[in-house]
Amino acid sequence: MAIKSFSTTNKVWLWPGANASWHFVYVDGPETKEIRKNSIKRGFGSVRVRATLGKTTWKSSIFWSAKEKLYIFPLKKSVRNIEDIYNGDEVTIKFDLI
Question: What is the pTM of this model?
Fold first, then answer.
């Protein structure tokens, strides 16, 4: 399978809850259909990706959200710290399915 590349630009948001600390970005639009069509799904509907945000590149997974009918992209704390990213910031993440 050829590497499929995508990008998303959205606001960072916190997972709801009393002790919310997980930060996410939505992957929406036509990318969602393409990812579902071209990816190997793992547990919880996750899809492995290699992501780049600013000057930082790392391996991660995106997760299918049945409620929103799109993927959500978790942002690691180490990446947020390096790139100086906070809840509510708009970011662009480029990623390849792996």
Answer: 0.87
Q: Which of 3, 5, 1 is nearest to 95 (CA)?
A: 5
Q: Do the beta carbons of residue 46 and residue 63 sit within 8 Å?
A: yes
Question: Residue 40's CB: how many other CB atoms inside 10 A?
Answer: 10
Amino acid at 3: I
Query: Which neighbouring-strand residues pair with 73?
Result: 25
The phi, psi pair for 37, rounded to 5°, reads: -75, -35
Tell me the backbone φ, ψ of residue 28, rounded to 5 degrees. Answer: -125, -170
Residue 8 phi, psi (nearest 5): -140, 145
Q: Which domains does the chain have, with CATH numbers?
A: 5-97 (2.40.30.100)
pLDDT at 81 over 90: yes
The model's pLDDT over 30-67, given as tens digits with 9 standing for 90+, comes to 888 888 887 776 767 789 999 999 999 999 999 998 88
